[in-house]
TrEMBL record:
Domain Plastocyanin-like: 89-200, 219-298, 350-467
Keyword Transmembrane helix: yes
One Pfam family per UniProt: Cu-oxidase
Keywords tagged on the record: Membrane, Metal-binding, Oxidoreductase, Transmembrane, Transmembrane helix
GO MF term set: copper ion binding; oxidoreductase activity
High-level lineage: Bacteria, Bacillati, Bacillota, Bacilli, Bacillales
Gene3D superfamilies per record: Cupredoxins - blue copper proteins
UniProt source species: Brevibacillus fluminis
TM region positions: 12-30
Listed InterPro entries: Cu-oxidase-like_N (IPR011707), Cu-oxidase_2nd (IPR001117), Cu-oxidase_C (IPR011706), Cu-oxidase_fam (IPR045087), Cu_oxidase_Cu_BS (IPR002355), Cupredoxin (IPR008972)
UniProt-listed PROSITE patterns: MULTICOPPER_OXIDASE2 (PS00080)
Protein name: Multicopper oxidase family protein
Length: 487
Protein backbone atom coordinates (compact mmCIF):
# COMPACT_ATOMS: atom_id res chain seq x y z
CA UNK A 1 0.00 0.00 0.00
CA UNK A 2 2.67 2.41 1.12
CA UNK A 3 5.09 1.37 -1.66
CA UNK A 4 2.49 1.79 -4.36
CA UNK A 5 1.47 5.27 -3.19
CA UNK A 6 5.16 6.30 -3.10
CA UNK A 7 5.56 4.94 -6.60
CA UNK A 8 2.45 6.80 -7.68
CA UNK A 9 3.87 10.01 -6.26
CA UNK A 10 7.17 9.48 -8.09
CA UNK A 11 5.40 8.73 -11.36
CA UNK A 12 3.14 11.74 -10.83
CA UNK A 13 6.15 13.94 -10.11
CA UNK A 14 7.99 12.69 -13.18
CA UNK A 15 4.92 13.30 -15.33
CA UNK A 16 4.63 16.88 -14.03
CA UNK A 17 8.34 17.41 -14.72
CA UNK A 18 7.98 16.09 -18.27
CA UNK A 19 4.95 18.29 -18.90
CA UNK A 20 6.89 21.23 -17.47
CA UNK A 21 9.86 20.55 -19.77
CA UNK A 22 7.55 20.16 -22.79
CA UNK A 23 5.82 23.48 -22.02
CA UNK A 24 9.17 25.26 -21.56
CA UNK A 25 10.53 23.85 -24.83
CA UNK A 26 7.29 24.85 -26.52
CA UNK A 27 7.52 28.47 -25.34
CA UNK A 28 11.28 28.59 -25.99
CA UNK A 29 10.65 27.45 -29.56
CA UNK A 30 7.59 29.69 -30.04
CA UNK A 31 9.61 32.77 -29.02
CA UNK A 32 11.51 32.24 -32.28
CA UNK A 33 8.37 33.00 -34.25
CA UNK A 34 7.78 36.28 -32.45
CA UNK A 35 11.13 37.99 -31.90
CA UNK A 36 11.24 41.57 -30.63
CA UNK A 37 13.20 43.08 -33.48
CA UNK A 38 15.21 41.46 -36.28
CA UNK A 39 17.07 43.02 -39.20
CA UNK A 40 16.62 40.38 -41.90
CA UNK A 41 19.58 41.77 -43.85
CA UNK A 42 22.04 41.06 -41.01
CA UNK A 43 20.47 38.41 -38.87
CA UNK A 44 22.98 35.59 -39.11
CA UNK A 45 24.38 34.42 -35.82
CA UNK A 46 28.12 34.35 -35.44
CA UNK A 47 27.96 30.72 -34.33
CA UNK A 48 26.36 29.58 -37.57
CA UNK A 49 28.42 28.50 -40.55
CA UNK A 50 27.16 31.16 -42.88
CA UNK A 51 28.83 30.79 -46.21
CA UNK A 52 31.77 28.98 -47.62
CA UNK A 53 33.21 32.20 -48.91
CA UNK A 54 32.48 34.24 -45.81
CA UNK A 55 30.39 37.39 -45.84
CA UNK A 56 31.56 40.23 -43.71
CA UNK A 57 29.95 43.21 -45.35
CA UNK A 58 27.90 44.60 -42.50
CA UNK A 59 28.77 48.16 -43.33
CA UNK A 60 26.01 50.73 -42.87
CA UNK A 61 27.02 52.18 -46.24
CA UNK A 62 25.18 49.44 -48.16
CA UNK A 63 22.41 50.03 -50.67
CA UNK A 64 18.85 49.92 -49.36
CA UNK A 65 16.33 47.45 -50.81
CA UNK A 66 14.14 50.53 -51.33
CA UNK A 67 16.49 51.74 -54.07
CA UNK A 68 15.47 48.82 -56.30
CA UNK A 69 12.33 49.92 -58.14
CA UNK A 70 10.62 48.99 -61.42
CA UNK A 71 12.55 49.60 -64.62
CA UNK A 72 10.92 51.24 -67.63
CA UNK A 73 8.26 49.07 -69.25
CA UNK A 74 7.95 48.49 -72.98
CA UNK A 75 4.15 48.30 -72.68
CA UNK A 76 1.38 50.53 -71.34
CA UNK A 77 0.62 51.22 -67.67
CA UNK A 78 -2.23 49.20 -66.15
CA UNK A 79 -3.69 50.41 -62.85
CA UNK A 80 -5.56 48.38 -60.25
CA UNK A 81 -6.98 49.12 -56.80
CA UNK A 82 -7.26 46.50 -54.09
CA UNK A 83 -8.88 47.35 -50.77
CA UNK A 84 -8.47 44.90 -47.93
CA UNK A 85 -11.38 44.77 -45.50
CA UNK A 86 -13.18 42.62 -42.98
CA UNK A 87 -16.16 41.09 -44.76
CA UNK A 88 -18.81 38.57 -43.75
CA UNK A 89 -19.01 36.18 -46.69
CA UNK A 90 -21.94 33.91 -47.40
CA UNK A 91 -20.47 30.86 -49.17
CA UNK A 92 -22.49 28.74 -51.58
CA UNK A 93 -22.13 25.74 -49.25
CA UNK A 94 -24.27 27.58 -46.71
CA UNK A 95 -21.38 28.60 -44.44
CA UNK A 96 -20.91 32.11 -43.16
CA UNK A 97 -17.28 33.18 -42.81
CA UNK A 98 -15.73 36.19 -41.09
CA UNK A 99 -13.37 36.70 -44.00
CA UNK A 100 -10.75 39.27 -44.99
CA UNK A 101 -11.26 40.25 -48.62
CA UNK A 102 -9.88 42.33 -51.47
CA UNK A 103 -12.63 44.52 -52.93
CA UNK A 104 -15.25 42.54 -51.02
CA UNK A 105 -14.45 39.09 -52.39
CA UNK A 106 -12.17 36.12 -51.79
CA UNK A 107 -10.35 35.40 -53.95
CA UNK A 108 -9.83 39.05 -54.79
CA UNK A 109 -10.34 40.23 -58.37
CA UNK A 110 -8.26 38.54 -61.07
CA UNK A 111 -5.50 40.83 -62.31
CA UNK A 112 -4.98 40.20 -66.03
CA UNK A 113 -2.23 42.03 -67.88
CA UNK A 114 -0.08 41.58 -70.97
CA UNK A 115 3.64 40.81 -71.06
CA UNK A 116 5.57 44.08 -70.95
CA UNK A 117 2.85 46.07 -69.16
CA UNK A 118 3.76 48.33 -66.29
CA UNK A 119 1.49 47.10 -63.47
CA UNK A 120 0.52 49.60 -60.77
CA UNK A 121 -1.55 48.26 -57.88
CA UNK A 122 -2.69 50.47 -55.02
CA UNK A 123 -3.34 48.49 -51.86
CA UNK A 124 -5.58 50.12 -49.26
CA UNK A 125 -6.31 48.70 -45.82
CA UNK A 126 -9.75 49.61 -44.58
CA UNK A 127 -9.91 47.91 -41.21
CA UNK A 128 -7.53 44.99 -40.75
CA UNK A 129 -5.73 45.91 -37.52
CA UNK A 130 -2.84 43.48 -38.04
CA UNK A 131 -1.84 45.26 -41.27
CA UNK A 132 -1.61 43.76 -44.76
CA UNK A 133 0.77 43.59 -47.75
CA UNK A 134 0.71 42.22 -51.29
CA UNK A 135 3.30 39.69 -52.47
CA UNK A 136 3.37 38.80 -56.18
CA UNK A 137 4.01 35.07 -56.00
CA UNK A 138 6.22 33.96 -58.89
CA UNK A 139 6.77 37.41 -60.34
CA UNK A 140 10.36 38.55 -59.97
CA UNK A 141 9.52 42.10 -58.91
CA UNK A 142 12.23 44.52 -57.72
CA UNK A 143 13.08 44.28 -54.01
CA UNK A 144 11.06 47.30 -52.85
CA UNK A 145 7.90 45.90 -54.50
CA UNK A 146 8.05 42.32 -53.17
CA UNK A 147 5.53 42.94 -50.39
CA UNK A 148 7.19 41.20 -47.43
CA UNK A 149 6.34 42.90 -44.13
CA UNK A 150 9.49 43.75 -42.19
CA UNK A 151 11.82 43.09 -45.12
CA UNK A 152 10.70 45.24 -48.07
CA UNK A 153 8.08 47.45 -46.36
CA UNK A 154 6.05 47.97 -43.20
CA UNK A 155 2.67 46.24 -43.09
CA UNK A 156 -0.02 48.64 -44.36
CA UNK A 157 -2.14 49.66 -41.36
CA UNK A 158 -5.87 50.56 -41.36
CA UNK A 159 -6.43 53.82 -43.25
CA UNK A 160 -3.05 53.56 -44.98
CA UNK A 161 -2.09 52.62 -48.53
CA UNK A 162 0.90 51.38 -50.54
CA UNK A 163 1.32 51.44 -54.31
CA UNK A 164 3.19 48.57 -55.96
CA UNK A 165 4.79 48.98 -59.39
CA UNK A 166 6.45 46.27 -61.43
CA UNK A 167 6.90 45.22 -65.05
CA UNK A 168 5.03 42.06 -66.07
CA UNK A 169 8.10 40.79 -67.87
CA UNK A 170 7.35 37.07 -68.06
CA UNK A 171 3.99 35.68 -69.25
CA UNK A 172 2.37 33.04 -67.09
CA UNK A 173 0.04 32.07 -64.26
CA UNK A 174 0.81 33.73 -60.94
CA UNK A 175 -1.03 34.71 -57.80
CA UNK A 176 -0.91 37.33 -55.09
CA UNK A 177 -1.38 37.14 -51.33
CA UNK A 178 -0.66 39.11 -48.21
CA UNK A 179 2.81 38.49 -46.76
CA UNK A 180 1.97 39.88 -43.34
CA UNK A 181 1.06 36.98 -41.03
CA UNK A 182 0.73 34.99 -44.25
CA UNK A 183 -0.44 31.72 -42.73
CA UNK A 184 -3.36 33.50 -41.06
CA UNK A 185 -4.15 36.07 -43.75
CA UNK A 186 -4.14 33.71 -46.75
CA UNK A 187 -6.59 31.44 -44.96
CA UNK A 188 -8.71 34.46 -44.05
CA UNK A 189 -9.03 35.21 -47.76
CA UNK A 190 -6.35 37.77 -48.71
CA UNK A 191 -5.29 36.25 -52.03
CA UNK A 192 -6.10 36.34 -55.74
CA UNK A 193 -4.90 35.41 -59.21
CA UNK A 194 -2.67 37.35 -61.59
CA UNK A 195 -2.29 36.24 -65.19
CA UNK A 196 0.28 37.69 -67.56
CA UNK A 197 -0.77 36.97 -71.15
CA UNK A 198 1.98 36.65 -73.75
CA UNK A 199 2.30 39.61 -76.09
CA UNK A 200 2.44 37.23 -79.04
CA UNK A 201 0.64 33.98 -78.22
CA UNK A 202 2.87 31.09 -79.23
CA UNK A 203 1.08 29.01 -81.88
CA UNK A 204 1.30 25.46 -80.45
CA UNK A 205 -0.32 26.52 -77.18
CA UNK A 206 -2.84 28.99 -78.58
CA UNK A 207 -6.08 27.86 -77.04
CA UNK A 208 -9.59 28.77 -78.10
CA UNK A 209 -10.62 29.11 -74.51
CA UNK A 210 -8.99 29.73 -71.19
CA UNK A 211 -10.09 28.62 -67.74
CA UNK A 212 -8.41 30.04 -64.65
CA UNK A 213 -8.95 27.88 -61.56
CA UNK A 214 -7.70 29.15 -58.20
CA UNK A 215 -8.05 26.77 -55.27
CA UNK A 216 -7.95 28.06 -51.71
CA UNK A 217 -8.97 27.14 -48.20
CA UNK A 218 -11.14 29.86 -46.72
CA UNK A 219 -11.49 29.18 -43.03
CA UNK A 220 -12.48 25.49 -43.21
CA UNK A 221 -13.99 25.43 -46.70
CA UNK A 222 -12.09 24.42 -49.83
CA UNK A 223 -13.09 26.73 -52.66
CA UNK A 224 -12.56 26.89 -56.42
CA UNK A 225 -12.74 30.49 -57.67
CA UNK A 226 -14.65 31.33 -54.49
CA UNK A 227 -17.21 28.57 -54.89
CA UNK A 228 -17.65 25.22 -53.17
CA UNK A 229 -19.24 23.77 -56.28
CA UNK A 230 -17.91 22.17 -59.47
CA UNK A 231 -16.93 24.50 -62.28
CA UNK A 232 -18.67 23.80 -65.57
CA UNK A 233 -17.23 25.17 -68.81
CA UNK A 234 -19.12 24.67 -72.08
CA UNK A 235 -17.16 23.84 -75.23
CA UNK A 236 -17.29 22.12 -78.59
CA UNK A 237 -15.46 18.97 -79.71
CA UNK A 238 -12.01 19.77 -81.06
CA UNK A 239 -11.75 22.99 -79.08
CA UNK A 240 -8.52 23.52 -77.13
CA UNK A 241 -8.73 24.69 -73.54
CA UNK A 242 -5.86 26.11 -71.51
CA UNK A 243 -6.57 25.32 -67.87
CA UNK A 244 -4.59 27.32 -65.34
CA UNK A 245 -4.49 25.51 -61.97
CA UNK A 246 -3.29 27.44 -58.90
CA UNK A 247 -3.00 25.82 -55.49
CA UNK A 248 -3.58 28.56 -52.91
CA UNK A 249 -3.98 26.03 -50.09
CA UNK A 250 -1.27 24.66 -47.78
CA UNK A 251 -1.56 21.01 -48.81
CA UNK A 252 -0.56 19.33 -52.08
CA UNK A 253 -3.50 18.82 -54.45
CA UNK A 254 -3.47 15.80 -56.80
CA UNK A 255 -5.54 16.22 -59.95
CA UNK A 256 -6.81 13.52 -62.29
CA UNK A 257 -7.77 14.34 -65.88
CA UNK A 258 -10.34 12.02 -67.44
CA UNK A 259 -11.96 12.00 -70.88
CA UNK A 260 -9.07 13.12 -73.09
CA UNK A 261 -5.28 13.13 -73.24
CA UNK A 262 -3.67 16.36 -72.09
CA UNK A 263 -0.36 18.23 -71.99
CA UNK A 264 1.35 20.05 -69.14
CA UNK A 265 2.35 23.18 -71.05
CA UNK A 266 3.67 25.28 -68.18
CA UNK A 267 4.74 24.95 -64.56
CA UNK A 268 4.84 27.97 -62.28
CA UNK A 269 4.12 30.17 -65.30
CA UNK A 270 7.12 28.98 -67.33
CA UNK A 271 6.42 27.14 -70.61
CA UNK A 272 7.75 23.61 -71.05
CA UNK A 273 9.50 22.61 -74.28
CA UNK A 274 7.64 20.13 -76.52
CA UNK A 275 5.47 18.65 -73.76
CA UNK A 276 4.10 15.21 -74.63
CA UNK A 277 0.51 13.96 -74.39
CA UNK A 278 -0.42 12.34 -71.10
CA UNK A 279 -3.27 10.18 -69.92
CA UNK A 280 -4.03 8.36 -66.70
CA UNK A 281 -1.41 10.26 -64.67
CA UNK A 282 -2.14 12.43 -61.67
CA UNK A 283 -0.85 15.99 -61.51
CA UNK A 284 0.57 16.86 -58.06
CA UNK A 285 0.26 20.61 -57.58
CA UNK A 286 2.16 21.67 -54.47
CA UNK A 287 1.03 24.56 -52.27
CA UNK A 288 1.75 27.79 -54.11
CA UNK A 289 2.45 26.04 -57.43
CA UNK A 290 0.69 26.53 -60.76
CA UNK A 291 0.23 24.04 -63.60
CA UNK A 292 -1.12 25.01 -67.02
CA UNK A 293 -2.78 22.11 -68.85
CA UNK A 294 -3.79 22.04 -72.52
CA UNK A 295 -6.79 19.84 -73.27
CA UNK A 296 -8.50 19.20 -76.60
CA UNK A 297 -12.20 18.45 -76.09
CA UNK A 298 -13.24 15.03 -77.47
CA UNK A 299 -16.42 14.09 -79.36
CA UNK A 300 -19.62 13.77 -77.29
CA UNK A 301 -17.79 13.38 -74.00
CA UNK A 302 -16.93 15.66 -71.10
CA UNK A 303 -13.43 16.09 -69.72
CA UNK A 304 -13.33 16.08 -65.93
CA UNK A 305 -10.38 17.51 -64.01
CA UNK A 306 -10.84 16.43 -60.44
CA UNK A 307 -9.01 17.16 -57.22
CA UNK A 308 -8.53 13.96 -55.22
CA UNK A 309 -8.49 15.76 -51.87
CA UNK A 310 -11.03 18.55 -52.33
CA UNK A 311 -13.92 16.32 -53.35
CA UNK A 312 -16.65 18.12 -55.26
CA UNK A 313 -14.26 20.76 -56.61
CA UNK A 314 -14.02 19.33 -60.09
CA UNK A 315 -13.80 21.16 -63.39
CA UNK A 316 -16.07 19.89 -66.16
CA UNK A 317 -15.12 20.87 -69.69
CA UNK A 318 -17.35 20.46 -72.76
CA UNK A 319 -20.57 18.54 -73.00
CA UNK A 320 -21.86 15.01 -73.44
CA UNK A 321 -21.42 11.91 -71.35
CA UNK A 322 -19.27 11.77 -68.27
CA UNK A 323 -16.02 9.83 -68.76
CA UNK A 324 -14.98 7.01 -66.47
CA UNK A 325 -13.18 8.49 -63.51
CA UNK A 326 -9.80 7.17 -62.39
CA UNK A 327 -8.85 7.04 -58.74
CA UNK A 328 -5.18 7.17 -57.88
CA UNK A 329 -2.72 6.22 -60.60
CA UNK A 330 0.85 7.16 -61.43
CA UNK A 331 2.11 10.64 -60.61
CA UNK A 332 3.31 13.01 -63.30
CA UNK A 333 7.08 13.42 -63.29
CA UNK A 334 8.89 16.29 -65.01
CA UNK A 335 12.26 14.48 -64.92
CA UNK A 336 11.93 13.15 -68.50
CA UNK A 337 8.91 15.14 -69.75
CA UNK A 338 9.18 17.11 -73.01
CA UNK A 339 12.44 17.61 -74.86
CA UNK A 340 15.61 19.62 -74.17
CA UNK A 341 15.72 23.16 -75.50
CA UNK A 342 18.15 23.34 -78.43
CA UNK A 343 19.41 26.79 -77.44
CA UNK A 344 19.39 26.06 -73.71
CA UNK A 345 20.67 29.18 -71.99
CA UNK A 346 22.06 27.27 -69.01
CA UNK A 347 25.63 28.22 -68.32
CA UNK A 348 28.25 25.49 -68.32
CA UNK A 349 30.45 27.48 -65.98
CA UNK A 350 30.99 26.12 -62.49
CA UNK A 351 28.60 27.49 -59.85
CA UNK A 352 30.05 30.33 -57.80
CA UNK A 353 28.49 29.05 -54.60
CA UNK A 354 26.93 25.85 -53.34
CA UNK A 355 24.47 25.45 -50.50
CA UNK A 356 22.76 22.47 -48.94
CA UNK A 357 19.37 23.02 -47.32
CA UNK A 358 17.93 20.21 -45.20
CA UNK A 359 14.24 20.74 -44.49
CA UNK A 360 12.95 18.90 -41.45
CA UNK A 361 11.45 19.32 -38.03
CA UNK A 362 12.24 19.11 -34.35
CA UNK A 363 9.56 18.95 -31.67
CA UNK A 364 7.32 21.96 -32.23
CA UNK A 365 9.21 23.71 -35.02
CA UNK A 366 10.00 23.18 -38.70
CA UNK A 367 13.67 23.57 -39.50
CA UNK A 368 16.16 24.24 -42.27
CA UNK A 369 19.63 22.92 -41.44
CA UNK A 370 18.45 22.39 -37.87
CA UNK A 371 17.45 26.00 -37.26
CA UNK A 372 14.23 27.99 -37.46
CA UNK A 373 13.32 31.37 -38.95
CA UNK A 374 15.88 34.13 -38.29
CA UNK A 375 18.31 31.64 -36.75
CA UNK A 376 18.72 29.88 -40.11
CA UNK A 377 21.94 31.14 -41.71
CA UNK A 378 20.94 32.94 -44.93
CA UNK A 379 22.07 32.17 -48.47
CA UNK A 380 24.48 35.00 -49.27
CA UNK A 381 25.18 35.97 -52.87
CA UNK A 382 26.68 38.65 -55.05
CA UNK A 383 24.96 39.95 -58.15
CA UNK A 384 25.76 37.88 -61.25
CA UNK A 385 26.69 34.72 -59.38
CA UNK A 386 25.42 31.29 -60.27
CA UNK A 387 24.20 29.54 -57.12
CA UNK A 388 23.83 25.78 -56.78
CA UNK A 389 21.46 24.55 -54.06
CA UNK A 390 20.85 20.98 -52.92
CA UNK A 391 17.47 20.65 -51.21
CA UNK A 392 16.57 17.66 -49.07
CA UNK A 393 13.24 16.91 -47.43
CA UNK A 394 14.18 15.07 -44.24
CA UNK A 395 10.64 14.84 -42.93
CA UNK A 396 7.64 16.65 -41.57
CA UNK A 397 5.39 16.32 -44.63
CA UNK A 398 5.50 17.79 -48.11
CA UNK A 399 7.65 20.92 -48.32
CA UNK A 400 6.93 23.13 -51.32
CA UNK A 401 10.04 25.35 -51.22
CA UNK A 402 9.30 28.85 -52.55
CA UNK A 403 11.90 31.47 -53.34
CA UNK A 404 11.16 35.16 -53.82
CA UNK A 405 12.54 37.27 -56.67
CA UNK A 406 14.20 34.34 -58.49
CA UNK A 407 13.46 31.28 -60.55
CA UNK A 408 14.95 27.89 -59.73
CA UNK A 409 16.25 25.77 -62.60
CA UNK A 410 15.80 22.13 -61.58
CA UNK A 411 18.92 20.05 -62.33
CA UNK A 412 18.16 16.68 -60.77
CA UNK A 413 15.66 14.75 -58.69
CA UNK A 414 16.95 12.13 -56.25
CA UNK A 415 20.25 12.12 -58.12
CA UNK A 416 18.67 11.62 -61.56
CA UNK A 417 19.43 14.51 -63.93
CA UNK A 418 16.51 15.97 -65.89
CA UNK A 419 16.54 14.75 -69.49
CA UNK A 420 13.40 16.38 -70.89
CA UNK A 421 12.32 20.01 -71.06
CA UNK A 422 14.14 22.52 -68.89
CA UNK A 423 12.05 23.08 -65.74
CA UNK A 424 11.99 26.47 -64.04
CA UNK A 425 10.06 26.84 -60.79
CA UNK A 426 9.48 29.41 -58.09
CA UNK A 427 8.00 26.69 -55.86
CA UNK A 428 9.59 23.24 -55.76
CA UNK A 429 7.37 20.52 -54.29
CA UNK A 430 9.45 18.10 -52.22
CA UNK A 431 7.96 14.91 -50.84
CA UNK A 432 9.47 13.32 -47.73
CA UNK A 433 12.82 11.71 -48.49
CA UNK A 434 13.26 13.48 -51.82
CA UNK A 435 16.29 15.51 -52.80
CA UNK A 436 16.75 18.02 -55.60
CA UNK A 437 19.58 19.98 -57.10
CA UNK A 438 18.60 23.41 -58.37
CA UNK A 439 20.41 26.46 -59.67
CA UNK A 440 19.59 30.12 -59.72
CA UNK A 441 21.19 33.15 -61.26
CA UNK A 442 21.56 36.04 -58.82
CA UNK A 443 20.13 38.68 -61.14
CA UNK A 444 17.73 40.57 -58.85
CA UNK A 445 19.64 42.38 -56.08
CA UNK A 446 17.78 42.58 -52.79
CA UNK A 447 16.71 40.71 -49.68
CA UNK A 448 14.54 37.74 -50.48
CA UNK A 449 12.54 35.32 -48.42
CA UNK A 450 12.76 31.61 -49.16
CA UNK A 451 10.27 29.45 -47.32
CA UNK A 452 8.02 26.45 -47.31
CA UNK A 453 4.69 27.36 -48.96
CA UNK A 454 2.81 25.18 -46.60
CA UNK A 455 2.35 28.50 -44.79
CA UNK A 456 1.63 26.59 -41.59
CA UNK A 457 5.18 25.22 -41.83
CA UNK A 458 6.56 28.69 -42.59
CA UNK A 459 4.84 30.02 -39.47
CA UNK A 460 6.52 27.22 -37.52
CA UNK A 461 9.96 28.41 -38.59
CA UNK A 462 10.57 27.04 -42.09
CA UNK A 463 11.48 30.41 -43.53
CA UNK A 464 14.87 31.90 -44.35
CA UNK A 465 16.57 34.59 -46.44
CA UNK A 466 18.57 34.87 -49.64
CA UNK A 467 20.54 38.08 -49.17
CA UNK A 468 22.71 40.00 -51.62
CA UNK A 469 25.94 41.32 -50.23
CA UNK A 470 25.75 44.98 -49.24
CA UNK A 471 21.94 45.33 -49.42
CA UNK A 472 20.23 46.79 -46.35
CA UNK A 473 16.67 47.41 -45.22
CA UNK A 474 15.21 50.13 -43.02
CA UNK A 475 12.39 47.72 -42.00
CA UNK A 476 12.39 45.30 -39.11
CA UNK A 477 10.61 42.04 -38.37
CA UNK A 478 9.26 41.53 -34.86
CA UNK A 479 6.69 42.39 -32.25
CA UNK A 480 8.09 45.93 -31.88
CA UNK A 481 7.26 46.90 -35.48
CA UNK A 482 4.35 44.47 -35.75
CA UNK A 483 5.81 43.12 -39.00
CA UNK A 484 5.47 39.34 -38.77
CA UNK A 485 5.66 38.15 -42.40
CA UNK A 486 5.03 34.45 -41.91
CA UNK A 487 3.15 34.19 -38.63
CU1 LIG B 1 6.86 22.48 -45.34
Amino acid sequence: MKISSTRQRIIGGLLLLLIGIAISVYFWQMRLQKPLEIDMAHHQHSSGAVSQLGMHDHSPTGVSCEKFVAKEAPGPTRKFDLTAARTVLQLDNGETVDAWTFNGTSPGPEIRVTEGDRVVVTLRNKDIDEGVTLHWHGINAPCSQDGVAGVTQDAVRPGEQFTYTFVASAPGTYWYHSHQMSSIQAKKGLLGSIVVEPREPSAPFSAAKEVNALFQRLDSSMLLNGSSKALSVPGKAGEQIRLRLTNGDNETMNFSVDGAPFQVIAMDGRDLHEPGHLSGVMIPVGAGQRYDLLIRLPESKKVIVKSQSATGLSIMLGSGNEPELTEGGAMFSFVDYGTPQPDDPISKRKPDRSYVLRLGQSLFVKTINGHSFHEIPPINVKEGERVHITLINEGGGDHPFHIHGHTLRVISQNGTPLTGSPVYLDTLLMKEGESYEVELVADNPGLWMAHCHNLGHASMGMTMMLNYEGITTPYRVGTKSGNLPDL
